Queue: 2 jobs
Job 1
Amino acid sequence: MTLPKEYLEYPLRRHGMDHDLYPWSNLFERKPVTWPNGAKIALWIVPALEFFPLDDKKEPFKAPGHMVTPYPDYRTYTTKDYGNRLGIYRIMKVLDQFNLKASVATNARVAERYPFLINEITRRGWEIMAHGYDMNALHYGGLDEATEREQIKKTVDILRKATGQKVTGWLSPARSQSENTLHLLPEYGIEYVGDWVNDDMPYEVTTRNGPLIAMPHSNEIDDRQILINLGHSQAVFEEEVLDAFRLFYDEADKYGGRIMQITLTPYVIGQPFQIKSLVNILAEITKHDGIWSATGAEIVKAWRDQQ
Amino acid sequence: MKSEPGLYDYWPYVDRPKITWPDGKKLAFWVAPNIEFYELNPPKNPHRGSWPRPYPDITPYSYRDYGNRVGNWRLMEAMDDYGVRGSISLSVAMCQHHPEIIQACVDRNWEFFSHGIYNTRYTYGMDEAQERAIMEDSIKTVMDATGQRIRGYLAPALTHTERTMDLLAENDFYYTCDLFQDDQPQPIHVKSGRLISMPYSLEVNDHFIYNIYGNPPRLYTDMLKRQFDTLLEEGATSGTVMCIPLHAYLVGRPHRINPFRNVLDYITGHKDDVWVTTAVEIAEYYLENYYDLAAADIAKRNAEAGA
């Protein structure tokens, strides 16, 4: 047996990354960031509103949360729909109680279908982030550029029209990108993106169409990951989120403002037996001084102004 | 294909020659941070795939990149605070990509051993010259970057051939971390020279705890303390080795680093019984003092069993 000669060749073995999207940097050597009013923590809460079509597409892979049984999978469809009908309103009630805002990553198709819900978000002054058209419309390696452009354009057009907001944030469905995604987004007015999970603070991505800010948007400080994928208890979920918070809070003294980002899934945390975890977490966080409840766009602006 | 590796003899964990670590210590403790580079677009190995989604599979790629931007620094600080040096399982291309991280390890007098060129280049299918080439590349790359002659090996992504151990001995490596048959070092059958297996562990490896089992951080703390308690107790009979294999992209996350500090606090609190050391120091001490004794005991038992 032998492998082709190229298998032992390393054309990108060089200083820095093996791509040109961003330079390497050490979080702890960067210039400290100062948040408004000297806050230690920018609290960024990101629920996602997703529409999983009953006539699901699994190409090139199944989006997490998508249909499981043969058609018609009523159980999965309605479980997910629960999030858009009940779960998100429970989240709103809790955030209102603590006077906190959110950035809601929204499939455009949710805005088309549920204008009432969009109005409930925008009237609170919360931000809408673009989250693709729906959970069938994945962005992935191999998707042709024209189709992807159309998906992006349609998504931001619908969301801007529905909200009256600029809509500058993007989260790809299933966090999946093609080779072109990052390069296309700035053409459609997107300024920051939450797909990459390699940092705890923002950093700049270089695209063919100018800069884009990568925002730390966790796939671990995430209700669906901890409570559903890993099957942990509510107590463990609260403990993990608050352990992360305490670490950031301590680091802020030495390294400057940090971002405590919480990923929420309305069909998970919005269940009656789960929602109290959100109350417990936010009650503990808001006990502390120096918490700035912010949207992604506000955090990006504050960060960018200091670079 | 063989029905067993043929790399070592059956050697029951009963009445073995007593190992005593330096200064009468019962347990040799070492920590193995894996400092790795995963390529975004690695060439295909015909025997094993790399990323699950089509290129660019940004989620697992960026998840691992977190270690080099953020996690390594948190882990280094924690180990510094408890006076623990690392033995680094190194993707040696890190010497080109992120020499800043290599320098930080050199400054701490940490040990390096090879974990292949990249953790996305697998040994499966290599011919002898190719496998030899990655070992020679490893030795030279680390020597050029740090002045250190590496003595240990953990095959990239734990991918091996039947020749791996012979080639390691031939290249004057002292130890392999690829075998999991024991909690004490022991002689490995090789065609020339000497090679020992160094206890490493998949069972208490943070990759298994977090990526495979999905355990909560505080449970991991509890597991590591139990592992330590048992091995320390047994170390009174004959010295044991405990390794904690880590990946900073996992253990260096904000919700996980403090629970891990708790483990270091506990283990280093047993100063009278624990030799806090590196893998190469364990290997050198064992080769000098116990290799021959172990080999003779194994040979004697084989003779008695009529093997």
Job 2
Amino acid sequence: MVYDGILIGLVVGFIRAGWKSGLIALGNIRIKGGWVFPLLLIVQFGLFYLQDYVSFFARFNSYFYMLVYVAGLSLLYVNRSYKGINLLFIGVFLNFLVMLVNGGRMPVSLEAASVLDPHFIEMLKNGDVLYKHILLDSSTRLPFLGDIIPLGPPYPRRQAISIGDVIMNIGIFFYITSQMSSQKTHEKQPRTEAA
Amino acid sequence: MKQLKAIAVILKTPSYLYVVLLSLMGSLLLLSYFLPVGIAISNDRWITIYAMTAGVVLLDYFMFQLPPEGHRQSMDSTIFLATVFVYGVEPALLTLAISTFFIVFNHKDTKWWKHFLNLAMYTFMIVGANYIYLRFGGETGTFETSFLPAFIVSLAAYFCINVLLIGTYYFLVYKGRLVEILRMFIKEVLFAYLSILLLSMILVILLIYTSLFGLFLFLIIATLLSHVFKQLFLMYHEINDKANKDQRTGLYNHSYLEEKLDDFIKTYREDGNVFSFAMLDLDDFKKYNDLYGHPQGDKLLSFVGSIIKAECEPFGFVCARYGGEEFAVIMPAYGKNEARKFINQLRKTVNNSPFEGVEILPHGCVSFSAGVMEMNADTYEKSQLVGLSDRAMYISKSKGKNTVTIYGEQTYLPQKFEHEINELEQQIRVFLSKDVYTFKHSKRVFSYAVDMAEKLGLNEEERRTLILGALIHDIGKLEIPREVLTKRAKLSKEEWELVKQHVTFGKEFLLASGTYSDLVPLVELHHERYDGTGYPHGLKGTEIPKLARLLCIIDSFDAMTTERPYQRTRTFEEAVEEIQACSGSQFDPELAVPFIAYVNHRIEQDDIPEEIIQQLREQQEREGA
């Protein structure tokens, strides 16, 4: 779901800024501590991979994810002056919050999950260790922040998402479109051409 | 301490207290629906609430702006009402609470308590609408045409609560005038609420039959419409600006001013709202234009225009370029004296604004003459208002320019001898290089004489003699050496005798010139005293012509109230006392009375030339040191 906002943002951004200056604007994007984001992504994949082999990671993985979230949130906070980042922060925080109060896992409602692969639903029902999800039931805290929104046709993807995801994506969308069409990039353009 | 003070202010001001109480009660009402925390809302319902919230935030962002005045109409009420009708009051309140959170982000410049107040008011409106809807047989979640009365009554309740809550606030702020406030309200929002009712019913039907997809469609249409309206609004304003603004100065143009004047005259007649009107005319603009060319003159015009605009805008005055180098200002709620003060302040600001090449102008700076007039019952037409202000403005011109005159307060100067005034003014201009004091003194005495001629109701001939005589009365000082005139120490006996001679020199000057020989008595005899101890002839009482006696008072008054090397400056009040004390000895007691009345009137009006105030201040500083 995280990628949807980026994709739509890029498409709209290119339409508004044009192909060339849009690319230049993208090249000029500066994020404080930006290098940490890919690192966090790699750590996440690493954890996901390791949990199949090392039982230690399988048991405590959810807490590692929480740490990754805290790192991500603090990075966003540092960059909060950019347009859209505050929404992104709120979205990530809401997801973080609901996972925190539910043992580090994101609750997924059965109704919302019905749009997904039946295999996945089986795994949820059996309580199998799924990389970071858990079935939403009456014991779930803050259920309304969980993955309760089913996405399906006419939307091109099938997915169960949370309100945090939605806000996050709106934030990403605003961030990318504003970066791609900001006045600053128009000023920078001639200098880049001269160089 | 600061907080305590703020609280005290809030408790004392009814409107503040009202805002605080309303906000508190509204939020308590809101909380009462969700406390204790166990709210049982299904996940499905949450999705709906999220969608509705998104709708409200979107509609808040895409407000409808309608020409001409740009009333911003948000359609969020449509969504609140539809939510109440389809899902019940709790989802509606949750939608309200969450959307308020995001709207606060959207409108960072709005004060936080306004959001709070809005939240409280919407709570009351939603709860009230829900209550009425259920009472009148409406059912949540379905749509039947038999619910129609319930819809209408419920919306009426929503509307009434809104009007009541906001109306009370304005009632407290503007103290009374309830009927007027209500009328204005109903006129402005009734139509909007009608469309909100219809749209909310459409949304109800969409939601019931197509669920959130209906909301999606609705929002797309609303967003597109808002975009179209915005384009229309922008277009309207662009064209409006072109039609109403003067391109050179950025001020409004002549026809817009006339339109506005009509509006103001109308509200004056209907509601008694006073306003004042001022005509401003740049001094010696032609001279500037001739010397530097029209492009540079245009620059000066737009420069002055920008000053006027900057000074008037904070007060909400309408300022326009009336034509050529003439400007006009409408000052709502200002009486003539306040208006004169404002325009006078504006005049000083203009004087103090440096601009290329203005040193060649007679005042050495950009200046204007202005006429001010307050709207009154006798003025029935805007052309009259413009005409009379214009006349007052010409009086300012003839009194030496760079002044502000209130129409009716000051004299009307016969245009017949205007060119004579100009001619004599050229004569005394010689003093500019020789003795600036005498130049300024002559202009001031002239200005007092203009006023006194009006006050005494002199006939045309006398008026001319007095005014011209006042202007030229010290012309004989041309013969006196510069060192004597500007000497700061006490004059020796010989020097004093020489100074006294200026009346005789003046007489000779006039006789030689021929045309102005009828002014000789004033020039020669303005130092004669009523008790016969004056010079040059020691005439007594009525042996001295009346106008010379009057000029003697005016001349002495100005000498007292301005800085002379050999005496202390007096205030207007002190000078009045002095004249009173000397009336009968130095001054004609009969003529002193109207003059004292005239000066007292000016003191009351706070209409004292600022160069005199300036001198007094300097003197006080010196004495203090």
